[in-house]
Amino acid sequence: AQKITQTQPGMFVQEKEAVTLDCTYDTSDQSYGLFWYKQPSSGEMIFLIYQGSYDEQNATEGRYSLNFQKARKSANLVISASQLGDSAMYFCAMRGSYNNNDMRFGAGTRLTVKP
Amino acid sequence: DTEVTQTPKHLVMGMTNKKSLKCEQHMGHRAMYWYKQKAKKPPELMFVYSYEKLSINESVPSRFSPECPNSSLLNLHLHALQPEDSALYLCASSLGDTQYFGPGTRLTVL
User: With an 8 Å Cβ cutoff, are B50 and A101 in contact?
Assistant: First the structure.
């Protein structure tokens, strides 16, 4: 069974600073994918970044980067130069290789960017 | 273009009503999903359609009935819902690894 853990219910960051959101996972699959989504108060889940378990390089997408440490089973999201619009709920998610249509989410972290 | 559309945005219904949620994508994605999200909780998978066939049903009560009329459309038919079914219902689609979500339908059952 797959399990995703986000231990930070809420985080605060000053505008223009960087912030790291933690995510650890547990799976017995050799091949899996890790995702981060952003959910503003409007409700839409916005895809941010993806990391495959066999990718050797950490994924980056603009101000988002994923700090992937396979041995530690962690996939932390780093947001650089935070903006007020980054205030939202952030979910880490994983899909395994057995049924890769089955994606499971962590509990989420609410990020608040302070001016 | 990674757009998934959902209608309606908001829906209020009584426990005896029948209503439907609609989801549409024109990205050529062959898998489509329904999720239910309660306030302050992560989304929970309800159904998965792969190539227009139901491939995952996460033991969802029969008062929720999914339908995939074609590769671009996904419906969720609602009948005899309970107040605890009030939630945000999210649709998603995928071609490869990444799922793209619609804006959701906020459902309130009175």
Answer: yes
Residue A63's contacts (CB-CB under 8 Å, 6 or more residues apart) are A79, A80, A81
Rounded Cα gap, residues B110 and B102, in angstroms: 24
Contacts (Cβ under 8 Å, ≥6 apart) of B40: none
Q: Does B2 touch chain A (CB under 8 A)?
A: yes
DSSP string, A36-77: EEEE-TT---EEEEEEETT--SPPEETTEEEEEETTTTEEEE
pLDDT digits (tens, 9 = 90+) for B25-55: 999 999 999 999 999 999 999 999 999 999 8
